[in-house]
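S1.2 Input.
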Amino acid sequence: MRFDLHPTEPGSPDPLSSLNLQELSCPMFLNLLGRKHIHLRAKDGRLVVNAPAGVLDDLLRAEIKRRKTDLLAVLGTPGGASPEPSLLPASRGGRIPLTSSQQGMWLIEHFDPGNVSYNIPTAFRIDSSLDIDLLQKSIDLVIARHEILRTSFHEEQGELYQTIAPSAKTLVGATDLTSLPEEEAETEARTRIREHGRQRFDLRQPPLLRCHCFRITPARNLLFLNLHHIIADLQSLSILRQELAVCYQAVSADRAPELPALSLQFADYAIWAAAQMASGRVQSQLQYWKQKLDGLPTYLELPVKGSYPEQRSAWGATVTFEVSSATSSSLVAVGRQSGATPFMTFLAAYALLIARFSGQRDFCIGSPVTQRKQIETQRMIGLFVNMVAYRIQFDPQLSFRDILRQVRTTALEAYEQSDVPFQTLVRALRFNRRSPRSPIFQVMFGFEPFTPSDSSVLQIDTDPGTARYDLSLLLAELADGTLLGTFEYRTDLFRHAEIAPLANQFVQLLQEVAEAPDHPGDAGPVGDEVRAAVVESRQSAAAPLVPRLTLFGRLSKLFSSRSDKQEP
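S1.3 Output.
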């Protein structure tokens, strides 16, 4: 297995030397520059750089230039990129608390035992042979290296805490499918991967990690990994994959793996985070959210089939589609003109789609934000994610560019107030956690910019057939600028025949607003029209659904509903 990783010798004093600059979030990149005494500020729409002589090399100059729009967006807000209190090794004398995000995961398991929607299954096709014994040794090394992979979660007299076992072992499973024709073997492996992804974890029993290898041919394998979200986030999967590859290469050569030393562990972060909450540091931010969400409609009323279920279901399905690089690039350029990042730009487009689909103009879209704000957290496996609510309030006369500016302002404010744990916000706003509807927002959005990876290791679809929200959209940028989109939806609320055309409508919407971002919309609500289209589609399963998901009634050319292209 080959990966683009540049490890340092164990014990290296500077963890920065092993980081790929493109992997860093903007706050992390600013933190890195600050350590090198390079300071940036926004002035009149320009990026001003102050640095000691000889420190700003060509690599950093190129990265600053590449990130210019994002950096201006972060630095252009009052108090932007404010430093976090120092994260230091913590005393392990008492019980280790759960972070607020971990508490949320634990509550889901408590109220809905066996819910597997927070499993994180991932699988890779590896075009080389794999030795199962060496893979087992490699997994053992990674588990020994990261305490969070040896952690379990408990409750005693109302107190939640996590415990780190001195050792833990997950047995690497292996299934040999080489007796089957290659295509049939891959199909069988993917079927079994889906089944493995649906196996629940017992949060009291570490490790909350599983590994299985499916041998397709002697020189082709599918490597399946599954972790519970309570111990990992998306970046954790990348770290795990990279370190597993380094360890495999090392044990194959009978040498110690060369990985940067971990000066801190996730438990140190959890104790630090608990101290920050106890200090009241987030109280002013909590007040912001109370004001921001004041008067928000209780729920976003999507056109679901029948009445909303009284019992929440975790089962879901997905619809995938593509957005051409030409459309994506054009829309990113529109965003750049307004000082908006690609995330903000596509969030605004998704908000417009949701408004068309629901007929509502006041709702929230949730999105995960990283809490990896210290350099030391960059190489940790763990859950460093908080959910943030972006409130969308549409004026009927707004153009897409107006909507984008509003979303940009909302996003920048949200970034500044993102330290309030989502669970804390839910409690403060007194949402019913036992309700079958998600509190604050019922739809979610995620955007993954392109990051280079090893071409010999290809990630494959591991969808376990679950859904965390009523409707979610993930856009992932590919190397050529194309966007791969995935709608994830609850199957007790929607059918494929409704969501597939919604994907078509989204592609059309992106093309339209990219071509005419200043064109205004009309003023008539269309919630009844949308619902009528859904009902009509259910009455004729044989007829393809082409709902007129218009936002403001009889719309002009910009927002006219077209469905001349069917996406898979």
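S1.4 Remarks. The longest helix spans residues 496-515.
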